[in-house]
Task: structure prediction
Amino acid sequence: MKARTATMNVSLPAPLRARLDQKVQELGSYGSTSEYVRELIRRDLQGDVIAHVDALLAEGLASGPSEPVNAAWWGERRAELARHRRERAKKARKRA
Result:
């Protein structure tokens, strides 16, 4: 399915517009200045996502030593969850 297009008009000073047109012509890989500007916006937004992921990675690294996630780790998590469920069920029976 093709994305809907919305129009946005941007006013540029004449010298900036001339430089933009020249740049697009020199690059030769864009059919119009609009395509070039759309690509710049996409790159900027992608940069925001990359910065967010980098921040999450840094937070993870700063959170302390890592713990290997293997079959034993999952077994412990499942056992912990089973204990938690049993405790909740026991409390629910006492309230009933």
Summary: The helical segments are 14-27, 33-62, 71-95. The two ends are 54 Å apart (CA to CA).
